Request: fold
Amino acid sequence: RWQAEQALQAAESRYRNLFENAAEGIFQTTAEGRIILANPALARMFGYASAGELMGAVFSVADQLYLNPEDRRAFQRLIAERGAVRDFEVRQRKRNGSVFWARFNAYPVHNDNGELLYYEGRVEDITARKEGEEALRRYQLLSRHAHDIILFIASDGRLLEANEAALKAYGYTREEMLTLKIHDLRARHVQQQTDDLIARAFAEGFAIETEHRRKDGTRFPVEVSSRGVETGGEKVLLSVIRDITSRKQAEAERIR
Reply:
């Protein structure tokens, strides 16, 4: 009996340590949504100094955590229909009113008679991931509809990404474009400057006028603005390129 008690105490100690120090929020709620247990990580996530505060009167009903009350009802429907919630992503409200994105995993706990005791689960703050996804979506919209050519270029000159305007301007498919280097897009008489320009763009950025070349070999004047940026932990070049053929033609007409 003594050994069994010692083993039980050790197990409880390990669970308590995990509960108190977990990076994710851990909770238990009643069927109505009243928080009956919360760990420190959950309290911090919602802007409270302690779990005791989180379980106070202001947040006694879980509906108040949701930015949109309908999300709470969707959560409850999933529990009723599936018996558990997996990777449920939703906007939540902190104590100070600010909003963050959370991902829930939760399941019901029953007694031996099948009666519901409480819901138990985990919450992860996924705000950074959601903001990254939104930034990517905005970039994709911007690059898809921009009139200017947008290129991402590796330090060795490889093309990493090109928008729709680039494909149209140079006459390549996306698959073809991403096998090229920026050297391949420059007119032959300026190709020897490519390495120096890449180094300059990484060092300080630049804006120049030069000539580029299409897939069919025809040349056209461009205005290039290029600078080093960091994306995904890697330093790359962002180049915004404008076809200035019309402007050059207008300048030639004025001279004549």
The longest strand covers residues 219-231. The chain is about 40% helix and 30% strand. Residues 34 and 60 are 5 Å apart (CA to CA). The mean pLDDT is 86.
